[in-house]
Specification:
Belongs to the threonine synthase family. Its cofactor is pyridoxal 5'-phosphate. The chain has two domains: about 1-130 and about 245-460, Rossmann fold (3-Layer(aba) Sandwich); about 155-235 and about 465-495, Rossmann fold. It has 18 helices and 15 strands. It has helices at about 20-25, 45-50, 55-65, 75-85, 135-150, 165-175, 195-200, 215-230, 230-235, 245-265, 280-290, 310-315, 340-350, 355-365, 400-410, 420-425, 450-455, 485-495; strands at about 5, 35-40, 105-115, 115-125, 155-160, 180-185, 205-210, 240, 270-275, 295-305, 315-320, 370, 390-395, 435-440, 475-480. It has a six-stranded mixed sheet, sandwiched between helices. A five-stranded parallel sheet has the order 8-5-6-7-15, sandwiched between helices. Helix 3 packs antiparallel against helix 4 and helix 3 (about 55-65) packs across helix 10. The relative contact order is 0.14.
């Protein structure tokens, strides 16, 4: 399996040289500034789906990943998935759920309607070490990185940005790993107290937390700026674990297959997924699963007040917000107004025309967005093709989150986090008869206790080991958005 950049030149260039999975594993952006995607999406047959229904999560992950990581020996890949997806790693399951299922499903409601029934299901993705769905991919990434570096004796300096969950998932996956250092940017004082403590309380010498005076998009822009400085990136051995990293996206494809197989009994059935969405990485994995042949009816992007994705899927206009227009909300991991992975979908939407993608995203940089609505003066009319990819969207507000958290606690006896509440609120607007709707859980409620306390009047339950995390000593530095200063800080701590 070879990989191409979404912005590859039509003439032969570095970005068009054949790249395999291991070649792009440690990096993020392609040298031309684009994102990697496979040359084609491998297809899954009905016979394979039937055979996969009885597999463990680790074995299912192996079957899917081997279609993409064709350059890793099968025995090695199987050992890596077996090491990653264990009930010991994903032990923070809710009472009554089996940790060995890794991503257990819970039917929230089933309502009889004319012609059949509507079903709302929650897929638990937050049972890992940092209580967020990011662990599903990041734990695998840590093991893949260590495996790859050990083969060559190389080292890697991970430079990333987080709005809350990616950072802690990356740091917990990479802490103590030989040959790896982590430099993680986060918006200063814009994460929950729990999220902040999870990251900043880590004292491992290979973990460096940098709080940036700005919003998440400022952090993300700095990561891209450093990634585009190719000489510096090579000299400092910079890699990324942000959702632009292809290995992270493909690891997330697995739980779409798992959710579908667990919710159905026949390949004739379809399901839909609602995904709380900020950077478009999670729902991009659903798009890839659907392109592989998984019987998905709808992929519903649920946003908060930062609704750049909802606006596109309603109007065809992709309009990036400025930092001053980005709201700080009670679902802070989605306080994102420039969705990095969106480029991967646009590449497919415009017929994999890389020159077109390059022009559209150049316009994002110069004009703050583009318009595919087909209206006079627009940049194209591909918005009319969106429906064939199954995408829908919706938006949720702080009041909606509070109301949904209360409803779910009252009706189903469980406490959900704020992002999952956004998902459930929007999912209810897109239910179809006889098509189960699976909402992907973002995190456990304990990570956003301030809002849970506001909604329910009681603290969210905390898994064992997290009782007093905010009281632990914290190690971090505060910096402004000066890329040169950031580069100097990294260089000073790598010694390269």
């Amino acid at each position: 399996m070879h990989y191409v950049s979404t912005r590859a030149d039509q003439a032969p260039s570095q970005s068009q040289q054949p790249q395999q999975f291991s070649d792009i594993l440690l990096g993020g952006l392609a040298p031309d500034g684009g994102l990697y995607l496979p040359e084609h999406y491998p297809q899954v047959s009905g016979a394979e789906l039937d055979a996969w229904r009885t597999l463990s999560y680790a074995d299912l992950a192996f079957e899917i990943l081997k279609k993409f990581a064709t350059d890793i020996p099968a025995a090695d890949l199987k050992a890596l998935t077996a090491k990653t997806y264990t009930k010991a790693v994903y032990r923070n399951a809710r009472a009554g759920e089996n940790a060995a299922d890794i991503t257990p499903l819970r039917v929230l409601e089933e309502n009889l309607v004319k012609g059949g029934s509507t079903t709302l299901i929650l897929q638990a993705l937050s049972n890992g070490p940092t209580l967020a769905f990011k662990d599903m991919a990041m734990q695998l990434l840590g093991n893949l990185f260590e495996y790859t570096l050990a083969k060559t004796g190389a080292e890697l300096n991970i430079f990333g940005a987080t709005s809350g969950d990616t950072g802690s998932a990356a740091e917990y996956a990479m802490r103590g790993k030989k040959g790896i250092r982590v430099f993680m940017l986060s918006p200063h004082k814009k994460m929950s107290a729990f999220q902040t403590a999870q990251m900043f309380s880590l004292q491992d010498p290979n973990i460096h937390n940098i709080a940036v005076e700005g919003v998440f998009d400022d952090c993300q822009d700095m990561v891209k700026a450093v990634s585009n400085d190719l000489p510096y990136k090579a000299r400092q051995k910079i890699g990324t674990v942000n959702s632009i990293n292809w290995a992270r996206v493909v690891a997330q494809v697995v739980y779409y297959f798992r959710g579908y197989l667990a919710a159905t009994t026949s390949n004739e059935q379809k399901v839909s997924f609602t995904v709380p969405s900020g950077n478009f990485g999670n729902i991009c994995a659903g798009h890839i699963a659907r392109m592989m042949g998984l019987p998905i009816s709808k992929l519903v992007a649920a946003t908060n007040e930062n609704d750049v994705l909802d606006e596109f899927f309603r109007t065809g206009v992709y309009r990036v917000r400025k930092s001053s227009e980005t709201y700080h909300t009670s679902s802070p991991s989605m306080d994102i107004s420039k969705a990095s992975n969106f480029e991967r979908f646009v590449y497919d939407l415009v017929g994999r025309d890389s020159a077109r993608v390059k022009a559209l995203f150049a316009k994002v940089d110069t004009h703050g967005g583009f318009d595919l609505s087909g209206k006079p003066g627009s940049d194209g009319d591909e918005f009319k093709q969106v429906a064939k990819y199954g995408f829908k969207s919706g938006k949720s507000t702080h009041k909606d989150r509070l109301d949904t958290i209360r409803d779910v606690a009252d009706d189903y006896g469980i406490t959900i986090d704020t992002h999952t509440a956004d998902g459930i609120k929007v999912a209810r607007e897109h239910l179809e008869v006889n098509v189960p709707m699976i909402v992907l859980e973002t995190a456990l409620a304990a990570k956003f206790n301030e809002t849970i306390l506001d909604a329910l009047g009681v603290d969210a339950e905390r898994p064992k080991g997290f009782e007093n995390i905010e009281e632990l000593p914290q190690k971090f530095v505060v910096m402004d958005t000066d890329v040169a200063k950031m580069q100097a800080y990294i260089a000073a701590h790598t010694g390269l």
